[in-house]
Write a structure and sequence with these properties.
The chain is an alpha+beta fold and about 190 residues long. It contains three helices and twelve strands, in the order ββββββααββββββα. Helices cover about 10% and strands about 20% of the residues. InterPro entries: Znf_LIM.
Protein backbone atom coordinates (compact mmCIF):
# COMPACT_ATOMS: atom_id res chain seq x y z
CA UNK A 1 0.00 0.00 0.00
CA UNK A 2 1.41 3.42 -0.88
CA UNK A 3 2.38 5.83 1.88
CA UNK A 4 0.56 9.02 0.76
CA UNK A 5 2.23 12.17 2.09
CA UNK A 6 3.60 10.55 5.21
CA UNK A 7 7.03 9.63 6.38
CA UNK A 8 8.53 6.44 7.78
CA UNK A 9 7.06 4.60 10.76
CA UNK A 10 8.55 5.21 14.23
CA UNK A 11 10.59 2.30 15.58
CA UNK A 12 9.03 2.78 19.03
CA UNK A 13 5.38 3.79 18.58
CA UNK A 14 4.81 2.67 14.93
CA UNK A 15 3.19 6.02 14.03
CA UNK A 16 4.24 8.16 11.08
CA UNK A 17 7.44 10.15 11.58
CA UNK A 18 7.64 13.36 9.59
CA UNK A 19 10.98 14.80 8.54
CA UNK A 20 10.92 17.71 11.04
CA UNK A 21 10.64 15.36 14.03
CA UNK A 22 12.77 12.48 12.75
CA UNK A 23 15.86 10.96 14.35
CA UNK A 24 17.48 8.08 12.52
CA UNK A 25 19.37 5.31 14.25
CA UNK A 26 20.50 1.94 12.95
CA UNK A 27 18.49 2.37 9.74
CA UNK A 28 15.25 3.11 11.60
CA UNK A 29 13.35 6.36 12.20
CA UNK A 30 12.12 7.63 15.57
CA UNK A 31 10.17 10.62 16.84
CA UNK A 32 12.37 12.88 18.99
CA UNK A 33 10.04 12.14 21.93
CA UNK A 34 10.21 8.37 21.31
CA UNK A 35 14.02 8.25 21.15
CA UNK A 36 14.33 6.79 24.69
CA UNK A 37 16.30 3.98 26.31
CA UNK A 38 14.19 0.82 26.27
CA UNK A 39 15.21 -0.06 29.84
CA UNK A 40 15.42 3.16 31.88
CA UNK A 41 13.43 5.48 29.56
CA UNK A 42 16.19 8.12 29.59
CA UNK A 43 16.20 10.50 26.61
CA UNK A 44 18.89 9.63 24.08
CA UNK A 45 20.95 11.52 21.52
CA UNK A 46 23.62 10.56 19.01
CA UNK A 47 26.35 10.47 21.69
CA UNK A 48 24.46 8.39 24.28
CA UNK A 49 22.64 5.81 22.14
CA UNK A 50 23.73 2.19 21.80
CA UNK A 51 21.74 0.03 19.38
CA UNK A 52 21.29 -3.73 19.54
CA UNK A 53 19.34 -5.18 16.61
CA UNK A 54 16.00 -3.30 16.71
CA UNK A 55 16.41 -2.08 20.31
CA UNK A 56 17.97 1.18 21.51
CA UNK A 57 19.53 1.74 24.94
CA UNK A 58 21.59 4.31 26.80
CA UNK A 59 25.22 3.19 27.05
CA UNK A 60 24.85 2.27 30.72
CA UNK A 61 21.86 -0.07 30.21
CA UNK A 62 23.42 -1.52 27.06
CA UNK A 63 26.59 -2.34 29.00
CA UNK A 64 24.59 -3.97 31.78
CA UNK A 65 22.56 -6.08 29.38
CA UNK A 66 25.05 -6.96 26.63
CA UNK A 67 28.50 -6.03 27.98
CA UNK A 68 31.07 -8.40 29.48
CA UNK A 69 30.26 -9.80 32.93
CA UNK A 70 32.46 -10.79 35.85
CA UNK A 71 35.29 -9.52 38.00
CA UNK A 72 37.14 -6.61 36.45
CA UNK A 73 34.33 -5.56 34.11
CA UNK A 74 32.36 -2.50 35.14
CA UNK A 75 31.63 1.11 34.39
CA UNK A 76 35.18 2.37 34.93
CA UNK A 77 38.75 1.17 35.04
CA UNK A 78 39.25 -1.52 37.65
CA UNK A 79 35.61 -1.36 38.73
CA UNK A 80 33.54 -4.31 39.91
CA UNK A 81 29.86 -3.65 39.41
CA UNK A 82 27.39 -5.72 41.43
CA UNK A 83 24.42 -4.01 39.80
CA UNK A 84 22.15 -6.70 38.36
CA UNK A 85 19.95 -4.26 36.44
CA UNK A 86 16.78 -5.61 38.09
CA UNK A 87 15.47 -2.09 38.70
CA UNK A 88 15.68 -1.53 34.93
CA UNK A 89 13.87 -4.74 34.01
CA UNK A 90 17.06 -6.33 32.70
CA UNK A 91 17.52 -10.05 33.31
CA UNK A 92 21.29 -10.36 33.40
CA UNK A 93 21.49 -13.83 34.90
CA UNK A 94 20.54 -15.62 31.71
CA UNK A 95 19.97 -19.32 32.06
CA UNK A 96 19.05 -19.20 35.74
CA UNK A 97 15.42 -18.98 36.84
CA UNK A 98 14.41 -15.73 38.46
CA UNK A 99 13.21 -16.02 42.03
CA UNK A 100 9.71 -14.88 42.86
CA UNK A 101 9.56 -11.33 44.21
CA UNK A 102 7.96 -10.74 47.61
CA UNK A 103 4.61 -8.97 47.59
CA UNK A 104 5.91 -6.20 49.88
CA UNK A 105 9.21 -4.52 49.09
CA UNK A 106 12.09 -5.31 51.44
CA UNK A 107 13.58 -1.85 50.86
CA UNK A 108 10.86 0.75 50.30
CA UNK A 109 13.12 3.21 48.48
CA UNK A 110 16.60 3.74 47.10
CA UNK A 111 17.00 6.57 49.62
CA UNK A 112 16.33 4.25 52.57
CA UNK A 113 18.89 1.77 51.23
CA UNK A 114 21.58 4.44 51.04
CA UNK A 115 20.83 5.65 54.58
CA UNK A 116 21.97 2.32 56.04
CA UNK A 117 25.50 2.60 54.63
CA UNK A 118 26.14 6.24 55.66
CA UNK A 119 28.83 6.96 58.29
CA UNK A 120 27.97 8.88 61.48
CA UNK A 121 29.93 11.89 62.72
CA UNK A 122 31.48 11.23 66.17
CA UNK A 123 30.89 14.86 67.26
CA UNK A 124 27.20 15.40 66.35
CA UNK A 125 26.05 11.82 65.64
CA UNK A 126 24.44 12.77 62.31
CA UNK A 127 25.06 11.14 58.91
CA UNK A 128 28.22 12.17 57.05
CA UNK A 129 27.90 12.14 53.25
CA UNK A 130 30.83 12.07 50.81
CA UNK A 131 30.52 15.76 49.85
CA UNK A 132 31.02 16.90 53.45
CA UNK A 133 33.34 14.18 54.78
CA UNK A 134 36.77 14.82 56.30
CA UNK A 135 38.71 11.92 57.78
CA UNK A 136 40.47 12.43 61.11
CA UNK A 137 41.57 9.91 63.69
CA UNK A 138 40.32 7.15 61.40
CA UNK A 139 36.73 8.43 61.56
CA UNK A 140 34.55 10.50 59.21
CA UNK A 141 33.65 14.04 60.36
CA UNK A 142 31.52 16.87 58.97
CA UNK A 143 33.59 19.84 57.80
CA UNK A 144 31.80 21.98 60.40
CA UNK A 145 32.47 19.45 63.19
CA UNK A 146 36.17 19.08 62.33
CA UNK A 147 37.22 21.47 65.14
CA UNK A 148 39.34 21.37 68.29
CA UNK A 149 37.33 19.97 71.22
CA UNK A 150 38.79 22.61 73.58
CA UNK A 151 39.20 25.91 71.72
CA UNK A 152 36.88 25.25 68.77
CA UNK A 153 39.52 26.18 66.18
CA UNK A 154 38.88 24.79 62.68
CA UNK A 155 41.33 21.99 61.97
CA UNK A 156 43.33 20.85 58.93
CA UNK A 157 45.50 17.83 58.28
CA UNK A 158 48.58 19.84 59.31
CA UNK A 159 47.36 20.87 62.77
CA UNK A 160 45.08 18.04 63.92
CA UNK A 161 45.85 15.60 66.75
CA UNK A 162 43.52 12.94 68.12
CA UNK A 163 43.27 11.36 71.56
CA UNK A 164 40.61 8.92 72.78
CA UNK A 165 38.38 9.54 69.74
CA UNK A 166 38.40 13.34 70.07
CA UNK A 167 40.18 15.93 67.93
CA UNK A 168 42.44 18.71 69.20
CA UNK A 169 44.62 21.38 67.66
CA UNK A 170 48.32 20.84 68.37
CA UNK A 171 48.47 23.78 70.81
CA UNK A 172 45.58 22.53 73.00
CA UNK A 173 46.88 18.98 72.84
CA UNK A 174 50.33 20.08 74.04
CA UNK A 175 48.89 22.19 76.87
CA UNK A 176 46.53 19.46 78.15
CA UNK A 177 48.26 16.17 77.36
CA UNK A 178 51.91 17.03 76.64
CA UNK A 179 54.88 16.94 79.05
CA UNK A 180 54.93 19.47 81.91
CA UNK A 181 57.82 21.54 83.18
CA UNK A 182 60.06 24.38 82.04
CA UNK A 183 59.60 24.96 78.33
CA UNK A 184 56.67 22.54 78.06
CA UNK A 185 52.95 23.24 78.06
CA UNK A 186 53.23 27.03 78.32
CA UNK A 187 55.09 27.12 81.69
CA UNK A 188 58.01 29.52 81.61
CA UNK A 189 59.34 29.51 85.14
CA UNK A 190 59.51 27.19 88.12
CA UNK A 191 57.49 28.23 91.16
CA UNK A 192 59.53 28.37 94.36
CA UNK A 193 58.23 26.55 97.40
CA UNK A 194 58.32 28.66 100.58
Amino acid sequence: MPNWGGGAKCGACEKTVYHAEEIQCNGRSFHKTCFLCMACRKALDSTTVAAHESEIYCKTCYGRKYGPKGVGFGQGAGCLSTDTGDHLGLNLQQGSPKSARPSTPTNPSKFAKKMVDVDKCPRCGKSVYAAEKIMGGGKPWHKTCFRCAICGKSLESTNVTDKDGELYCKVCYAKNFGPKGIGFGGLTQVEKKE
